[in-house]
Fold this protein.
Amino acid sequence: MDYIFQFGAILDSLPRLLAGAKLTVMLTVATMLGGVVIGILGAIGRMFGPPPIRAALTVYVETIRNTPFLIQLFLIYFGLPSLGIVLSPTWAALIGMTVNCGAYAIEIIRSGIVSIPPSHLEAGRALAFRTRDIIRHVVLFPAMRVALPALGSQFVLVMLGSSVVSTIATEELTAVGHLLETETFRPFEVYIVVTILYVAIAFTMKAMFAGIGHFYFNRRGGL
């Protein structure tokens, strides 16, 4: 093996890679927040909403889950301008990631709601709770506790999948790595560093979700 590793040029450009990693983290955090909101509202709508709302949410979930994220992204970035809606690469990436993440979050949180024993819901009705009160006091906490591990894994996948948005010139970590590789002609070294950064972000996210699960859910106990 005659290959000689040369990390000098890559380390000199580390601030650029860190800037790309920062955008990756920002997109992921914003997507997580939007995904949780969509997930909670969508799961409640699918479980307790009227038939038209349930049908609309089912179409949304199944459409997103059965089409490639890249196609969804292209529809937003390249398709919407045909309707007069022009978005920057970053905004298109954020909207695409949030719409995609929301569909998966709906199903994950819905599975948490389904796991709640029917007797708990019946007890709420027996106490004359309104549906919104049952959702607030009986459903949400245990459902989110059950759903948190799967949500955490899904959000890590969202972060890793954010590399796809490099195809629309969003300057996140993968895009910066690709540009650096074309400048230095050291693809092996560039993508080793990029991999290390992704692993560091992923493990940080996993630790964060473990902390949330321990301090918010486990310490408060459950039903």
